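User: Predict the structure for this protein chain, please.
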Amino acid sequence: MRRAHSARQASLTVLAHYAALANSDAAALRRRCEVARERVPEWSGTTGFVESPARSYAFGETPLPSTPWVLIAVDGSQIFPSRHKPYLYGYARAQCQAIAYNAQDERQQAFVRDLSAPMRAKERVFTEEELVEPSTGELQAQRVALERSLLELEALAEACTQAREHGLQPLALADGMLIPFGLLGARLNEGYAPALERLLAALQEMRKSQAWVCGYVDRPNSQALVQTIMLSDLDPDAPDFARQLTQRLSAMRGVLDRHLLERLLPPKHHTAPFVPAWRINALLEQRGVAVHAFYANFGAPEIAGAPKTVIARLEVPAWCADVPLLQTLCAVVDRQVQFANGYPLLLATAHEAVAVTRALERTVDQALHAQLAASGIVPEMPSFKEQLKEAEFEA
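Assistant: Here is the predicted structure, written as structure tokens:
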């Protein structure tokens, strides 16, 4: 482990040098990215940026909006299907939490209170027919996870539209990536078209409401920045360009963007935005809703007991990707992070509100069992493993 740590530190020193070079000529770096994407399939850096993604901006003095606005956070939860239960089902839900600022109108305040109510949650139950692949009998648990992500975006989009109708500027904060993970590398013409259309509809509804939208990725594991700046001194016209890049990819394996930014990005600073090299982003760009990403350091070394470094990856749709707006978003998120000592408070509240606990899952199981029995359907017995779990829960 000590040897691996030393190797990472050596790699970070080299990457810091590349980062300095990357800031000198953004246009040249963009061309290197284009060539890398064409010639090295395993490279997964960025596909577009105006300023070098290694450049940083201070946001610590940025004021919060002075007009009426509402911060809306969303999170989701689910019950995955289990072959150990007497019956197969899946469940996904999403719920928003909101807080208004500068809103003096009682109608606005009532709307915000209603937005956080449990009855506003979006949910879906999956039947056995929807969860089992007919040809193989395999459970399709990923369908539940994808549904959860889509419900979160749809809940945000609906809340943003209603906030605008109530005279409030919506600022939407999602837990994690803006694009559902199941769609990032999917072949979008093979069964994913309905999910893609729902994603597009949600993003376009948020754009229509002029919402400021941000996905917050805690402890990010991306290497997009590292893989971009490692091109900084390579000649894209050299015959061995692909070989050199492949060697660097191998040497930098396991070195993440946050490892580098913990060294380079000061507290209360964010990087310039960039477009991640996801297949789906090319399609989203055609609809004007491509997702951009950037990093921010929400550490607070001046506050006793607060984390000195908090590197988060933030994702925004194209209409929110200009630097002045990013600084406003960072100022809002920074305040939330300081409230909860390292993670946005309203996102933590949304998580607590929507979480499906083991006790709640058991209640759902019992209610489903009762309904089936009342309909004259006798389920199978649970597996012996499930019976042991139930006995432990009772104990």
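The first strand starts at residue 46 and ends at 48.
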